[in-house]
Amino acid sequence: MNHEAVGDVFSVPVNSTSETIGWLGYLEGRSWGLFVDDYLLLMFGGLPWQVYFQRVLASRTPDGARVLSFLGGIGCLLMAIPPVMIGAIGYSTDWNQTAYSGVLDDGTVRPNLIVPLVLQYLTPPVVAIIGLGAVSAAVMSSADSSMLSSSTMFAQNVYKPVFRPQASDREVIWVMRLAAVVFCCIAAVLAITIQTVYGLFVMCGDFVYVLLFPQLVSVMFVPWFNTFGSLTGFLVSLAVRLLGGEALLNWKAVVAFPWYDFETNRQYFPYKTLCMLIGLFVMLIVSYLTDRLMESGRLNRKWLHRINNRLYAPAAEEEEDGDRKLGEINEGMDYASDTSTKL
Question: Where does residue 258 rank: exposed (0-12), middle (13-18), buried (19+ CB within 10 A)?
Fold first, then answer.
């Protein structure tokens, strides 16, 4: 902020035509739909993530998990301050006074380069090296953990339960390795073809919000929620979301919601929230109807048991094997204790 090229960060200029109000930005006309959609998906789409549940399940007590969740929310708010300040500083900088040669015709720079440019040209060399190194290390750590978790979830939660319940541990490990290679290739293609990391993050949060958030709400608060509703709602949500298109991937929209811009392929209506609500509604209706049909005997519960057994039997068998081995170990320890006592 003390660099000579940086202007007054806290001043909010307003011109007579209201074309800009500084780095705070503004909502113009139908853009409020995009803002509401992104705001909701960043909040609620950030809940059903594996990294969060890993920490919650690793807590020793429910109280510890609650405290961790509240502290995590406070931490997110605090950690959002540095990115906001970096963006404000980058917006308030006259880049023509710096050594950067890629300034655009209007005197600005590409928004997705703000962080490295601020670190490289507005801070001392030592700070720039440490900052860029920390960013690179964080990106690499997040990338490899994402690849590992994705391949693990595919092998353990999809391949073995659905396709090969009798698969051995060695086979699952090889599937995990092959899946990691495939996911890395897909990630490399996305990184080359898509120019915005923030856009990819929002897109991931988008699909988590549309597909998984209704599942989380239903599991936590709906007593009659079952597998039939879960599968049906998931497929309906996915279909409706894909029909809405995706500007980041240049997918043309099949269904044009209100305020759709055909030139930019952008949906200004908050259709992501609509897709989430449609999936949630379908889940509740299908779960309720199938539950009532099973209660009345018109739908045999064996179909539900078969689906659940197909999906969860391997995990249950592993848990039983673990309990059996633990029981054998305890028996062996009891036998050794009795023998030592007799001796």
Answer: exposed
Which residues does residue 52 pair with via DSSP β-bridges, in sequence order?
Answer: none
Dist CA 278 CA 68 (whole Å):
32
- Distance from C-alpha of 246 to C-alpha of 239, rounded to nearest angstrom: 13
In this prediction, residues 185-195 reach a mean pLDDT of 80
Section 282-287 average pLDDT:
91
Residues 12-68: tens digit of each pLDDT: 544 334 444 566 666 677 778 888 888 888 888 878 877 777 778 888 888 888 888
Phi, psi values for residue 139, rounded to 5°: -65, -45
Helix (H, G, I), strand (E, B) or coil at 21: strand
How many whole angstroms separate alpha carbon 163 and alpha carbon 295? 31
Closest by CA to 99, choosing from 122, 126, 115, 116, is 122
Q: How far apart are the C-alpha atoms of 162 and 310, rounded to whole Å?
A: 7
Measured in degrees and rounded to the nearest 5, phi and psi for residue 187 equal -65, -40
Q: Where would I find the beta strands (DSSP E) of 98-181? A: none
Per the CB < 8 A criterion, the answer to whether 155 and 181 are in contact is no
- Among residues 136, 127, 283, 295, which one has the least CA distance to residue 217? 283
DSSP one-letter code for 252: P
